[in-house]
Specification:
Elements (H helix, E strand, L loop, with lengths): L20 H4 L12 H7 L3 H11 L12 H12 L1 H34 L7 H4 L7 H13 L8 H8 L4
Helix pairs in contact: 5-7, 5-8, 7-8
């Protein structure tokens, strides 16, 4: 065995009392990202605060996108409240309204043809989607009734001129 050098190392131990220890040493785990319960509660948004912030940021939010967009909010909210079912009902009602408009237009055309004595050539299947103003036909009827209260004479130009609003 060889000569081993002997070295003396002085160890110093520092002791803190219970009251000094928390003042000197950080015991809150702040370096690990742990947040205390009171801080978590303080940092939590309420629904009211969320909507205040949402209204502030409304125009800064992109319209479309897979996340963080108005499109994303609509899709996720629609899934949550089962909005597709409501959309199906709305779509069915819109189809019914379109059919009722077509039926009403057909009856108004028959009446206009009876009053004027002329055939009105209007393809309802193509035109009903484009026609939103049925008042033109009603105005023609009123004009015709005022011009011909007893129904003995007709003015075909006033009826047919107003039945086809440029289509």
């Amino acid at each position: 065995m060889g000569n081993a050098s002997k070295e003396i190392v002085d160890l110093e131990r520092q002791v803190y009392s219970k009251t000094e220890y928390p003042k000197i040493i950080d015991t809150k785990f702040s370096q690990l990202g742990v947040v205390s319960v009171p801080n978590q509660i303080e940092d939590t948004f309420t629904v009211e605060q969320f909507f205040l912030k949402y209204n502030e940021l409304f125009y800064e939010i992109p319209a479309f996108g897979d996340t963080n967009s108005h499109e994303y909010l609509i899709k996720t909210s629609s899934d949550y409240i089962n909005f597709d079912q409501d959309n199906a009902i709305i779509e069915a009602l819109q189809k019914e309204i379109a059919q009722l408009r077509q039926d009403l237009l057909q009856e108004q055309i028959k009446l206009a043809e009876a009053v004027s004595g002329e055939k009105i050539n209007l393809n309802l299947a193509d035109s009903v989607e484009q026609i939103t103003d049925f008042d033109s036909i009603n105005t023609a009827f009123k004009d015709q009734e005022q011009a011909n209260p007893d129904g003995t004479t007709t003015n075909p130009q006033s009826v047919s001129a107003n039945t086809n609003p440029g289509y």
